[in-house]
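Worked example

This section walks through a single chain of length 150. The input is the sequence exactly as stored; nothing has been trimmed or padded.
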Amino acid sequence: MVKFEFDVVIDAPPDRVWAILSDIPLASSMMPGVQDVTLHPDGTYTGKVRIRVGPIGFNLAGEVTVSEDRDAGKWSMTSQAQDPRIGGGVTSTVETIITEPSPGNTRMQVNADVQFSGRLGQLGQPLIKKKADSMVKEFTENLKKAATQG
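Given that input, the structure is written out below as tokens.
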């Protein structure tokens, strides 16, 4: 299992950040490679992620469940996805604490546990960590832009 920790401050009030994170199709559009996000009657989402890690391209398809507790400042996501073509997959749990460190600013403390399997798991932690860091950085920049334009 690979653990990731990110700490991000956004120059926008928490209500604006919550509004974006609560709109899963909008929020997922800010993550590179994510596409075809669909809400199902049971409250879960399905979607696809196309990524390239080193020399290998992956087309992961899977399911995501999101929960939030605004009063406690917690946003959580669990996901699982597979690429049957190459025999690899990912399962993850993401826990985010959202606070307002100063008026009009939002702090997001993100902790993620990610399990890679099959060929994706064989790529090695440094390569996967580098790719995940770049994806989170791009998502964060997109989230900052959306939150400050609203």
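What to look for: The CA atoms of residues 65 and 131 lie 23 Å apart.
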